[in-house]
Amino acid sequence: MTKFTTLEQHASYGIGLQMGQQLADNPFDGLDILAVAAGLAAAFQGDEPEVTEQQIREAFAVITQRMEAQQAEQAKELAAAGEAFLAENAKKPGITVTDSGLQYEVLVQGDGEKPTRASTVRTHYHGTLIDGTVFDSSYNRGQPAEFPVSGVIAGWTEALQLMPVGTKLRLYIPHQLAYGERGAGGKIGPFSALIFDVELLDIIG
């Protein structure tokens, strides 16, 4: 039986849940939820803090340095994994490697017009990380995507200009031609190599 019975308690508990979920989404090693609750109560009630501002600033600085070091190490691992994958992939039959480092294989060869950098195109695509994790797919949405050739990641911009309408390529894109050291969204980490199946349906402008 819950000990929170009133409307106000339910709303208060909900606020705590939201704060807890935010902390869980971006925690640091050693985060102490009881200390978080004590600090929250002290601030709300106007009590004298048990930890000085100087101690808090110093703790934040150390924790931030630790997290940045962890992120840098993870980024190195991602970059190394992507580079190793691409190096092996380049040896496979049917793989073409361009001067920029973009790799592709032809799944379907079309015979239509090729877009230019100034074109707007309609495509279907399916994007995964090198471990197979799907991060975006117009096929899954059932809706083609339209965009300027110059308005996408560099690997796409290069590849689209090689594709006559009706062509379908599988692209293997190094991080420097994708989202680089920042990554994108929650699924594409920094220095991630990406794989896309891209089908050029039409040039619409």
The low-pLDDT segments are none
Structural class: alpha+beta
Main sheet overview: 7 strands, antiparallel
Mean pLDDT: 92
Order of H and E elements: HHHEEEEHEHEE
Report the total helices: 5
Helical fraction:
25-40%
The best one-word shape is elongated
Radius of gyration: 24 Å
* E-strand count: 7
Strand content: 15-25%
Rounded to the nearest angstrom, the distance between the terminal CA atoms is 63 Å
Protein name: Peptidyl-prolyl cis-trans isomerase
Pfam families: FKBP_C (PF00254), FKBP_N (PF01346)
Keywords: Isomerase, Rotamase
EC number: 5.2.1.8
List keywords for this structure.
seven-stranded antiparallel β-sheet, 205 residues, alpha+beta, rotamase, isomerase activity, EC 5.2.1.8, elongated, 20% strand, isomerase, 7 strands
Tell me what the structure shows.
- The chain has about 200 residues and is α+β, with helices and mostly antiparallel strands.
- It is about 40% helix and about 20% strand.
- The protein has five helices and seven strands.
- Strands 1, 2, 3, 4, 5, 6 and 7 form a seven-stranded antiparallel sheet that branches.
- Strand 3 and strand 4 (about 135) form a beta hairpin.
- The longest helix has about 35 residues, at about 55-90.
- The protein is elongated, with a radius of gyration of 24 Å.
- The model has no long low-confidence stretch (mean pLDDT about 90).
- Its EC number is 5.2.1.8.
